[in-house]
From TrEMBL:
The chain crosses the membrane at residues 6-31, 43-65, 119-139, 160-181, 246-264, 271-289, 309-334, 346-368, 374-395, 402-418. InterPro entries: SCL35B1-4/HUT1 (IPR013657). Keywords: Membrane, Transmembrane, Transmembrane helix, Transport. It comes from the Eukaryota. It comes from Daphnia magna. This is Adenosine 3'-phospho 5'-phosphosulfate transporter 1. Pfam families: UAA.
Length: 443
């Protein structure tokens, strides 16, 4: 058979989706019998549900893509095949003309700016990043760790997946509107390739929200500062990347600082072993998933050369698809909306969190394009320090002298890394991509 008929193709996709959904229900019910839904390790159950929800989307899409490529269905005419062509090639055009590729993520700026204009622009970028991400961090901690009161009823919000969904859908809208209003290179990245880093990105965000139930926000911020270590390890495994001696040295310093901080702040949260282990596992999960996201995005930048905003839009589009499927399967939308109906202030917290996250991503791209990755990294490093300070002041986290020393060592290592990078820089494009990855631009 030369071609696979469209009706047969879609029948196979639908059958795969139904079969995956049925198997997911069986596994979910079996998991509930083994793991206590109200216990300290209930996050494992939620993680299983999340993975199963993603699988109900991933497997049918795999069948669709595999059969379409095998039978070249994306080369056919018709609206349905144009959509398929977008998924498989990144564009609806049958033939894409070769054009010069401008540096990705760069905004054209042919006008010569005065010193005052540059200073004003830097102030706007710095203020935008600080306000966006400081607000995002404080609201994130509030939603996941503080209680909402409705008369005599006091409860906490527990569905991390819904928060990820809200952040991603707003980021998708922000980036989509930006793409419509600005000129971009022809998009050449197959949409399905965004799905891999999209899954790892949503799982890393899920892990960081869940981790706040077990560890303090300052601990999480320091752990995120140490993401350079798993990024380097994943780079070795995925890309066979080579690193300089100063990169290994600063990675060791960050590890020492993290160890000192954790030893010096052990009494900040519940002191039982289960909680400690759960928080550590979730933070490790965040770092592993996030490091894969960074390296996969790097590979897409090199192979298909999308702009940073195109990458942001594509990843968030796929993230919306995966998280919405998972929420529908788990009943997360019903729980979250009913919680919002009982606590209207929760709606405002969610919207502000999503807006600050999405606007922060746009400020990231603007700052790097105008002032370079070193200035951006300095701003974000200062933001991390301020986040820890504000969290300690507002939510009464305790830091011992050893914990303060650990924070100092971590930030010293980061600034040493910034200084050395500015002295021996790689290409501007490679630096921009690398810094955006290590900053966690989709957190």
């Amino acid at each position: 058979m030369q071609k696979c008929p469209g009706a047969t193709l879609f029948a196979l996709v639908i059958t795969t989706g139904i079969a995956t959904w049925v198997v997911s229900l069986i596994i979910s019910n079996a998991a509930k019998l083994i793991i206590d839904e109200n216990g300290e390790t209930s996050w494992i159950l939620r993680f299983i549900f999340t993975i199963l929800g993603y699988t109900t989307v991933f497997l049918p899409c795999y069948v669709l893509i595999h059969l379409s490529q095998r039978h070249n269905l994306h080369t056919l005419g018709g609206c349905q095949w144009r959509l398929l062509r977008l998924i498989l090639t990144g564009t609806t055009l049958e033939i894409v003309a070769e054009t010069d590729i401008t540096p990705t993520g760069r905004l054209s700026n042919t006008n010569v700016q005065t010193l005052y204009q540059k200073a004003l622009s830097l102030f706007y970028c710095c203020a935008g990043l600080q306000v966006s991400y400081l607000l995002w961090g404080l609201l994130q901690e509030k939603i996941m760790t503080r209680e909402y009161t409705d008369g005599d009823k006091i409860e906490r919000f527990t569905d991390s997946q819904f928060l990820v969904f809200v952040n991603r859908i707003l980021a998708f809208l922000f980036s989509g509107i930006y793409l419509l209003l600005t000129h971009q290179n022809v998009h050449r990245t197959p949409l399905y390739k965004y799905s891999f880093c999209s899954v790892s990105n949503t799982l890393s965000s899920w892990c960081q929200y869940e981790a706040l139930k077990f560890v303090s926000f300052p601990t999480q911020v320091l752990a995120k500062s140490a993401k350079v270590i798993p990024v380097m390890l994943m780079g070795k495994l995925v890309s066979r990347a080579q690193y300089k001696n100063y990169e290994y040295t600063t990675a060791v310093l960050i590890s020492v600082g993290m160890t000192a901080f954790l030893l010096g702040s052990g009494g900040d949260k519940k002191g039982n072993n289960v909680t400690t282990v759960s928080g550590a596992v979730l933070l490790c999960g965040y770092l592993i998933f996030d490091s894969f996201t960074a390296n996969w995005q790097s590979a897409l930048f090199k192979e298909h050369k999308p702009s940073s905003i195109q990458m942001m839009c594509g990843v968030n589009l796929m993230s919306c698809l995966f998280t919405s499927a998972s929420l529908i399967q788990q009943g997360g939308f019903f729980y979250s909306l009913s919680f919002a109906a009982r606590h209207p202030i929760f709606i405002m917290d969610c919207l502000l969190t999503a807006i600050s996250s999405a606007s922060g991503q746009l400020f990231i791209f603007a700052t790097i394009s105008k002032f370079g990755p070193v200035v951006f990294t300095i701003i974000m490093t200062v933001r991390q320090g301020l986040s820890i300070l504000l969290s300690c002041l507002l939510y009464q986290h305790h830091l011992s002298p050893m914990g303060i020393l650990g924070v100092f060592i971590v930030f010293l290592a980061i600034f040493l890394r910034i200084k050395q990078t500015s002295v021996t820089p790689p290409t501007a494009k490679a630096r921009s991509i690398k810094v955006m990855q290590q900053a966690g631009q989709f957190d």
